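Attaching the record inline, Q. Sequence:
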Amino acid sequence: MIFSIFGFISADQRIILKKKIFFINDIIISLLSALAIFIVTYEVGVSDEFLEGWLYYGFGMILVLMTIAYSIKLVSKEERYSWIKVVLDSFIFFLLSLGTILYFDLLASSTYLNQFGEVQEKIFISVLVFLLFIVEVSKLSLSVNQLNIHPALVFILSFIVVILIGTALLSLPNATTNGISFIDALFTSTSAVCVTGLIVLDTATDFTFLGQLFILILFQVGGLGMMTFTSFFGFFFKGSFSLQNQLFLKDYINEENIGAINSTLLKIILFTLITESMAALLIFSFVDEGLFDHVGDQFFFSIFHSVSGFCNAGFSILSDGLYEMGFQDQYTVHLIIALVIILGGIGFPVVLGYYNYLKHVMVGTKKLITGEEEYRHASRVVNVNIRLIVYTTTILLVLGFVTFWVFEAEHTLKGLSGYGKFVTAFFGSVTPRTAGFNTVDMSALALPTILIYLILMWIGASPGSTGGGLKTSTIAVAVLNAISIARGKDRVEIFKRQIGNETLRKAFAVILLSFLVIGLGVFLVLLFDPQMTLVSVAFEIFSAFSTVGLSLGITGDLSIGSKIVVTIIMFLGRVGTLTVLVAFIRKAKTLRYKYPEEGVFIT
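Structure, as predicted:
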């Protein structure tokens, strides 16, 4: 250990000195990573050359200093460090060393070390700097609970920070083909982070590959949630979660068992990556390769739409979405994207609940077959919340499919093959549930279909998912309460369980707030743009609030005032109006009194 040279000081003093050096070293690494990502972003987004001029040597010194700082972490590591932590730090040190060598190889234009090729080396160095920055930010995010800020406010602020960063990135000259205004950059960033999909510029033509890549990263982070995303990296690279971290994160990932925070977070990230990867491979396999100029374009198309589908973002790198000429009859691709949308919108609690159930069944069956023990039933593995979400989702999908099939028979479904009609109707029942893709001409929809879409958009996806909207469980609880009142019951019961009064109160509060926000949004947009029709504006606001992204074609024609209104509504729809109230309204103290109860006439 390098601290053995301080043998003339006491053991306690060595420990204090060691902690100070660790602390200073971590600060230096964080500052250097922030400076490095700033330089790379500037060069990639502004300059056409890679680190030319004085930045060339300065960036090289940053890489050298970061390599030295990580070597200090390895040489002077604490004994309590787990082997995983040591391996990860060693891997980062190796990548930094390799990146530094490659960089100075570029600087010297050497033909001996330059085995990757100049372009590959630049990409490797840029990706390395980006990953190191993510690691450092993730570590810092685990300390946010020490700021004594309400978790709801932290959740809101995390989205605001990502939106502002996205606005800055999309404003870079190299991110767009013809430049972009601040309002349009803010609108696009908010739409991506809030996984909405409404666009004021054509993603396919107005944004470069770099801009499309920024949008992809934004809705990936926004779909998972910034705190979930950074906590995952922070856990692995910091080594563990403290009890404070676990208490702070349990509400973000809908996990009641504090001891299962680590495993739940890992399962969420793994499920996301596995689902998106499999979907991308399937899309790549089934999409017609003749529609692309290069295999790279086909690969990026597959990844972009896979991630956009799972995150219910609705962004597409096609000017007319999936209704683009040549893509509109790729029905198998449409079906794959629809299934990915359902998996992303049904909610992680549902996926984890059924995962635990299948795991219990498989383990129990194995023990029964091997004679280890009798099969034991595990109660409430799939609880009321999960069953209610699954039943409600199924009902909405069937309702949407049937109504689309009936009302669009003489409109958008006319002339399609049997398979085409089935997939289009199924996709039409899936996409308004916060997805935002379109496989038909939205302006050609029948009026009854538009009204059904308004209802489906308003309800949205499920809690704990990548989607927005009122949520399936909310509308289910409200309907059950209405049925219970009609039957003269004094409580709400489902699946031999009673729904708590607090859940009922929250459900109706969310419904009321949604109507207030949507109503105010429609009023303001019509005030700023009185030439637009009520149906088109209402459809736009419902779509924005429920983070759907479907439009009847008016988004690009909105005035600056209307764009600001829609931007705010997209944000409120993603973070939740009730969450905003909880974050900013002071919580009442426990009431130690009770007034006499008195009825109020309702009907």
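The longest strand covers residues 493-494. DSSP finds 21 helices and two strands in the chain.

More tomorrow.
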